[in-house]
Amino acid sequence: MPYTEAKEHTQGRLNALFADPYRAFENDAEERQLHLHVMLYMLLARPMARGNVTLRVIHGWENGGFAPEDLHHVDYPLHTLDDFKRAAIDFEQAAKHNAPLPAEDSAILATPLADAIADAQAEGQELTDDIQTTPARWPAFEGGLALYTLFKMYHRLVYGEDDAYRCSQCQTPHGLREIHEFHLEEGEFALLVPLSKEEDMKASPSLLVLHESQLQPLETLLEESVSLLRDF
Sign of torsion, CA 169 170 171 172? Predict the structure, then answer.
């Protein structure tokens, strides 16, 4: 079993800043707003200024559905707050005109899942017929644990989560990443960032992921934070 593909509830970069990151963003935490601003500066504002962040907006799952082929996404380069606002306008205009939401041709879960299953079967591994629609069984084949970890992240971003914060590690197409996942009153989103020990961290891309319903809440949060963060 390839457990090195992903690890849940790991210590990440925020452990160097906060004594207990899992409590730092809860509603009753002391200096919660300060923690939020510091986190946004470290994990988002600095890599944005370097041009190393991509915004990924997801949509498609609804009414409890979770079929991999039904999860759609679109990616935007994210250098400034204006880039974020342009993405929000794209979705606002699509909804206003009852048009399809922006989406890329590639499937973030279905395509790599089909490839991983095909590779496992080509190597003679026997898999159940329903494995593609049973995410909990994906760790049975190489690459499946990473896909299952990402699936759970996407699922929580679509359907919500009680925990305000969690940190995981996961293999991605860009290499090993820390997943910092936030479910806050101000918005729900995840930041996939390179490990702090990476030598070439400045050149490594980060990913900001959120459901399309969170574009407006997160835009408000970023607007409130950018002027403060710009002074650091």
Answer: negative
